[in-house]
Design goal:
Elements (H helix, E strand, L loop, with lengths): L1 H25 L22 E2 L23 E4 H8 L6 E8 L3 E8 L1 H4 L4 E8 L5 E6 L4 E3 L2 E5 L3 E6 L8 E10 L2 E6 L5 E4 L11
Antiparallel strand pairs: 1-2, 2-3, 3-4, 4-9, 5-6, 5-10, 7-8, 8-9, 10-11, 10-12
Length: 207
């Protein structure tokens, strides 16, 4: 799997840099020193967390939200965390998340057919708010109730209205996939997803 891509990437990276160095030398210029440093470094440095870059407003209901509605969202690559932290592989491989002024949005990608199997629940745990609370959703049917929406199609998508977080400006979220009393997967693998509800992303707009 990954190793093959990384090897190919490293090889491509080396050839690409060598070509550029050759071009600089052809025109009698000194190649910039960073051309001698691989662009793609080894696996450990691959980031598994990308923070959101803009506000998102995906339309979550029975109709699938378009992937374009998630542009600018943050993501967590859980599958990278399995390999680096030597953890048991879980059904969810990627988490996408973001928010707008009304709600927090999360999408979970992975082995969704496994999730739709009987008796699995998704627990969303909100931490560090004084009194931690959690939502629990059955994975075999969509859930739409008081603005909380959970839809399961090719992936799991949920919307949590900000009203649930009272006047908290930051939210720490954890997710668990549970079967009976057994936790099948806890996400994110590094602890909790940190969301700054006051982040407006204004600095990221290029005018």
């Amino acid at each position: 799997g990954d190793d093959h891509i990384t090897e190919f990437g490293l090889e491509f990276d080396r050839l690409f840099r060598e070509h550029l160095i050759a071009i600089y030398r052809l025109v009698d210029m000194d190649p910039p020193s960073d051309l001698f440093v691989p662009i793609i470094s080894n696996k450990c440095n691959v980031p598994f967390l990308l923070k959101p870059r803009s506000s998102i407003s995906p339309f979550i209901n029975e109709r699938k939200s378009s992937i374009f509605e998630w542009i600018g969202c943050g993501s967590v690559d859980e599958s990278k965390l399995y390999s680096t932290m030597d953890r048991e592989r879980g059904p969810i491989e990627r988490i996408y998340y973001g928010h707008n002024d009304k709600a927090i949005f999360v999408a979970l990608e992975g082995d969704i057919s496994f999730l739709k199997m009987s008796q699995l629940k998704l627990q969303v745990i909100v931490e560090k708010t004084g009194e931690d609370f959690q939502f629990s959703f059955s994975m075999d049917a969509p859930y739409i109730h008081e603005d909380i929406q959970v839809v399961i199609d090719k992936r799991v998508e949920l919307a949590l209205p900000k009203s649930h977080f009272k006047d908290h400006t930051t939210v720490h979220l954890r997710f668990e996939i549970v079967k009976g009393n057994e936790i099948i997967q806890m996400m994110p693998g590094f602890g909790a997803l940190f969301i700054d509800l006051e982040e407006t992303y204004a600095d990221n707009w290029f005018v």
